[in-house]
Amino acid sequence: MARCNLGILEEKVGNMDRALKHFRIAIKGGDSESLKCIQKLYSDGCATKEDYATALRSYQAYLSEIKSKQRDEAAADDVRYRYYESGV
To answer: What is this structure's pTM?
Structure first.
């Protein structure tokens, strides 16, 4: 979450390269909000298609790494245990 916040601060002052760097690091740790930020940067023309595609692959790799039958069962029983964002 801290990296995402740093990315947002860098974005606000116009340092898009630094913002992307912070968002990428956060995504590797599973931060779906950073993925949404890169998606917004892409739709605004401030990030490339490759930036967004790389971010998606990183997030999917994170989810694959932490996926387990036990987590899936807990997430199915209670949304508080969901370890992924629906619609991402």
So the answer is: 0.80
Report phi then psi at 59, rounded to 5: -65, -40
**Alpha-helix residue ranges (DSSP H) falling in the chain:** 2-12, 16-28, 32-43, 49-66, 69-77
- Quick one: tokens of 25? 């690091």
Rounded CA gap, 53 and 81, in Å?
27
The list of the chain residues with pLDDT below 50 reads none
Q: Is 47 exposed, middle or buried (0-12, 13-18, 19+ CB in 10 A)?
A: buried
| Contact present, 34 and 4 (Cβ < 8 Å) | yes
